[in-house]
Amino acid sequence: MMLEVTLQGKQTILETREVTLRFGGLEALNGLSFSVTPHQIVSIIGPNGAGKTTLLNAITGVYSPHGGEIFFHGAPISRLKPFQIAALGINRTFQQAQLFSNMSVLQNVMVGMHPKTKAGFLSGALHPPGERIEEKKIRERAERLLAFFGLLPKADWTPGHLSIAEQKRLEISRAMASEPELLLLDEPVAGLNIRETEALGDLIIRLKEQGQTIILVEHNMHLVMGISDWLIVLHHGSKIGEGRPEEMQKDSQVVEAYLGR
Amino acid sequence: MTLSLQIFQFILSGLTAGSTYALIAIGFSLIHNATGIVNFAQGEFVMLGGMFMITFYTFLKFPMLLSFILTVFSVAAVGLLLERGPIRRARSKEILILVMITIGASIFIKGLSMILWGKNPMTLPSFSGEAPIVFLGAAVMPQSIWIFGITMGVVAALSYFFKGTMTGKAMRAVAASRRSARLTGIPVDRMILLSFTLSGALGAVAGIILTPITTTSYDVGVMLGLKGFSAAILGGYGSMPGAVIGGLLLGTLESLAAGLISSEYKDALAFLILLTALFFKPSGILGRGRLRQV
Amino acid sequence: MGNKNKIFLLIYALIIFTLPAILQNNYHLMVLNVAALNIMVVIGLNLLMGYAGQISLGHAAFFGLGAYLSAIFTATHGVPLWLAMPLAMAIAGIVAYLIAIPTLKLEGHYLVMATLGFNIIIYIVMIQFDAVTGGPSGFAGIPRMQIGGLIFASDRQIYYLFWAISIAVLFFSLNLIHSRVGRAMAALSHNEIAAGCAGVDTEGYKAKIFVISAVLASLAGSLYAHYITFISPGTFSFFYSIQVVTMVLVGGRGSLWGSVFGALLLTLLPEALHAVQEYSVLIYGLILMVVLVFFPRGLFPGIGGLFAKRRTVLPPDSRERPALEKRA
Predict the structure, then answer these.
(1) Cβ contacts of residue B117 below 8 Å, gap of 6+?
(2) Which residues in A lie closer than 8 A to residue B294 (C-beta atoms)?
(3) What is the pLDDT of residues A95-153, one digit of tens each?
(4) Which residues of B touch C288 (CB under 8 A)?
(5) Which structural domains are found in chain A, ordered by start?
(6) pTM value?
(7) Could you tell me if residue B291 is inside a domain?
(8) pLDDT digits over B126-138, tens only?
């Protein structure tokens, strides 16, 4: 572990240490340890059931690990609630886009800004000038985000009417609304065609170029090999390999995991 | 009377009330297991049990056994109608809505009873007279023995039903996993209908055996239903042995507290116990936890 | 809050404040006064049910707490009104908070039972604690509503006061719905996990909304006490709790205008049914069933009709992964 940190040469933004998580008798995560350095796209891959989504849930506080610890900028976060983790600067998308279909596309993104804004119940009810200014800023920033993600013309639509690719982009824009340091994307291109996949891949690279650190959980090997800086391979909740994409492609253990025995 | 004898007396009378709570609790569990909803009309089934019995036996002068059977069938039919009618036809399957529908049904049944039977309390004669039997120094009403005995009989019959018959096992399958039950060809809808019908029958039995002791009127359903529900939660929602234990326990604790502390707050005690049980062990004494995972 | 709402609010206020000129019968005014209070309770409850996705069958207890506490403080202990009412509201709020903490860990109808149980306990306390509350025969001699030196003695005066407060509550609530908090609540009601990951303190908000709804109910209760000047436990039984929940559902969860409509309809209806007193319970139950069976979203459903959290009749199997991992 020490070796990995110095190899990267930069400070770790996220680190998991011996993280274990059980569901009933099943160990979804088994002593998982790895670390992520900033401004990179790190992809987590592995066969189905390897624990990838569970890992994201553990990082974002949806589940609490039964063993081990997760560190964000060196501070332990495994006991924190999801909203606290969002406030710290970690945000995510879901395997199946969990959009708020009871509000507009724009309002979805506006909700994403919750951790960075502060008007409370009293301000909300009384609607004083300070609150109006904040609302205006929220709206403007949300519109800028939608524009970046190519969704501005559909700002007043309900998410249900968007295409899958648009829904995925909306979810990412909602996650980006809170200006997270670390973005977790759970199978962002699942269900997209080749063209849409490439477009989203480009978008993810653009986000990285803007300084975003991204952890990507994906099955689409073409995308993963194309955009990742680093790969972590999971199998049965454990890490069976990590390294640069080209290295992992040749790793026998990894290949075996995918092809089965 | 010595204290220990008093306590013994309280326990005995507590077991009496507790038996009926147990029957009501089983009714709740049945429907909850099959559908996930709380049937707030359960208490009204109990009330109807008393009312129908009075109608058949006292007004129409039918023999006791015949009245008993007719009553059970009548209230079972009410349960059936409730499921086939508002519950089945509801446009939303959301649990809150269905539960509120049962509340609407309970209000409706209460209102109907008020019109049909008036507001005055009515009673039934005890099954075998009023002469108290002395048992280990305490006085026991013969009706209490009937109550306890019939309850145990019903519980035994239900146990056999659930463990020994195909239909009973099918119902347990539905309770465990509706999806899987459907996949194995069990007619889930019919099982749900059965659960409502059975709950109606159980409520009727509870009402019939209890009325000679407590009298009945159009508005007893509410309190009895809530106590039965408390008992169900206390014993672990969804478990029949749990419902029985919960019922007996609730009845006993209630009786002891009323006798030793204060009889005025007796009804509130049941709910205090419930709130405490919910606070410390939401899954009840014997139940599987359905706590939301955080 | 959007121009449409502002216009509706204006028209609403206009109608409300010109009505007394037309209505001469004080009894009608009294019914409307009670309706104004019910609207307050129902709006608070709708915030809880429609936005926090919670269920309370115990709001009569908060209504009653407001009434009895304010009555006891002023009549028995001579506390001035301007202090007694906020005090009652504060106590109701604290009690609500204490209830919210443990029960928010529970799900679905366990919470219903907890609030229902609370309602019944308070009701029984009202009856049994007769030295303080006057017992089943009630509590009389409550001082009238007054602000500064102005005493509100007539139904007409009360009308203007109560409806001003009621409309103010609606106004502030509409503002709230359209604010950052309102969006967070809507998100929370629709998809709690996603809302949490987006940064909404879901447990905290649910508790706060429960407290707010309790405080509103308590305010309404205090106003009621100082209007009628006599209160008795019967008014605060859980039947009232069910009535207000019904009003929310009939109007539509998530729709504040729906709450206004539901509260008005179901307050005026029993009065209209007074002629058929005997049948009123029966008809009430019937209406409840009919509306819920055929109009589960209420008569004014919220945006997109999807304000309520998606719930299925199926409880999850104990072996299945939590909803997050399920394929739809």
Answers:
(1) B51, B54, B55, B217, B218
(2) 64, 81
(3) 888 999 889 999 999 999 999 998 899 999 998 999 999 999 999 999 999 999 999 99
(4) 100-101, 103-104, 107-108
(5) 1-89+180-261 (3.40.50.300), 102-178 (no CATH)
(6) 0.82
(7) no
(8) 877 777 878 777 7
